[in-house]
Amino acid sequence: MTYVVTEACIRCKHTDCVDVCPVDAFREGPNFLVIDPDECIDCTLCIPECPVDAIVAEEDLTPEQQEYLELNARLARAWPTIIESKASPPDAEQWAEVKAKRHLLEESSPKAAAE
């Protein structure tokens, strides 16, 4: 089993979770974080750190959240590791209660955008 970052993280991108991850399993995209399923050790330390409840156990994903399992795995291969928390986006609180955000996910790699 692995843990999965879901839609609630889009445009909120709070990074408190990365500070507690003992194996550096988080990857950072432009407006979303993912967990690398090959690195995650199922320790659960990140779950209480997420203020928007975006991290879910694979077995607890709802049918609507299932796509995030594959999405985390795919984007984890493309995005760089994040090991220290950063300031949240200035409008993160405005996005915290928004439910339908999948269409806002920016999948391009921050590395590619910088090149």
What does this structure look like?
It is a single chain. Helix content is 23%, strand content 10%. By secondary structure, the protein is α+β, with helices and mostly antiparallel strands. The chain has one domain: Alpha-Beta Plaits (2-Layer Sandwich). The strands form two sheets. A two-stranded antiparallel sheet has the order 1-4.
Helix-strand string: EHEEEHHH
CATH class (first level) name: Alpha Beta
By helix and strand content, what is the structural category? alpha+beta
Output the number of helix runs.
Answer: 4
Low-confidence spans: pLDDT under 50, at least 5 residues? none
Brief synopsis:
This protein has 115 residues and is α+β, with helices and mostly antiparallel strands.
Task: Give the SSE layout.
Blueprint: E1 3-5, H1 16-20, E2 26-28, E3 33-35, E4 55-57, H2 67-78, H3 92-95, H4 110-114
Antiparallel strand pairs: 1-4, 2-3
List the defining traits of the structure above:
115 residues; alpha+beta; Alpha-Beta Plaits; two-stranded antiparallel ribbon; 23% helix; globular
